[in-house]
Amino acid sequence: MKHRLQTWRLRWNWLDLALSVQERFVEVRGRFVASGVTISIFLAIFPLMLVIIAIAGFVAIGDDSIAPRLVENLGLSGAAADALTGTLERAAHTRRAASVVGLAGLAWTGSGVARALQNAVRVPWQEGVKGLKDRTEAAIWLLVGSLGFALSIGLGVVGSEWDTDLARPLAIAVSVVFGFAIEVALFTWIFWGLGTRRVAVADLLPGAVLAAVGFETLKVVATVWIPRLISSASALYGSIGIVFALLAAIAMFSRIVVYSSTFNVVRYEAREGTTELTVQMPRLAVAGAERATRGGFRVPEDVS
């Protein structure tokens, strides 16, 4: 089977590129890097929700129609709808404390998200993240990127919620095209700003296009399928169902970032080549020939 696969790789360049990206993703422990991004984003959601609740508390004072409108627009029912309604009722009384705690928590967890994303972009290039300076710069890049992603997601929601049957397909098509253009620019911005900055922007563009395709697909799925999944999951499993649906979407986004950065690295190396550096490891009893992986781990020489 390995011989046949190697023959196919020599015949089809696209297959060889795809398998090379997957092999590099495994070698640099991309799955664990993506998991770090997922957890960081998930933890940042809690202070973000506090800030949103505080804002809702200020807005909801004297207006009893906000909670029913939000429940209807989000397509919630059962335990999820009751939880949202109760949260908005309490938000009016705790808005000041929630805003202070939420903003402080969001500032800290947001910088953690920025550093995790920076690590996701740099690990495929086998570069590390340095100290407070990198963390601060990454937080600034993430703030700008978040505004762009919010705009892109907003375009998708507007397109999917268009009421006229005739105009809705056109609105969706326009939102997808504009959203895709925004996402290509955003991922190029992220790969350059959070990455090595020692390669040309043109070398980062292919990965940005790949990431934009993946994110656009995820966005379409999220705006159409996720609300239904949340509604059904909340009815079956309560609030934990919403958590599972949210985690799945974040995990897919995290892998998109790592895979796209790895895609850039593999293409760049194919043209520019590689260099060899010495890796220091503990001196252990050696059972046979060994080599170091891209991730800095020792493996037997015959293990690919």
Topology of this protein?
Layout: H1 2-11, H2 13-27, H3 30-60, H4 66-74, H5 78-122, H6 131-160, H7 167-193, H8 201-224, H9 226-237, H10 239-272, E1 290-292, E2 298-300
Antiparallel strand pairs: 1-2
Kindly describe this structure:
- With 304 residues, the chain is an all-alpha fold.
- The protein has a domain at 35-49 and 93-267.
- Helices cover 78% and strands 2% of the residues.
- The protein contains 10 helices and 2 strands.
- It has helices at residues 2-11, 13-27, 30-60, 66-74, 78-122, 131-160, 167-193, 201-224, 226-237, 239-272, and strands at 290-292, 298-300.
- A two-stranded antiparallel ribbon has the order 1-2.
- A hairpin with a 5-residue loop joins strand 1 (290-292) and strand 2 (298-300).
- The protein is elongated.
- The protein starts with a helix and ends with a strand.
**H/E topology pattern:** HHHHHHHHHHEE
Compute the CA-based radius of gyration: 23 Å
Reported for the largest beta sheet, the result is: 2 strands, antiparallel
How much of the residues is beta strand, in percent?
A: under 5%
Number of helices: 10
How many strand segments? 2
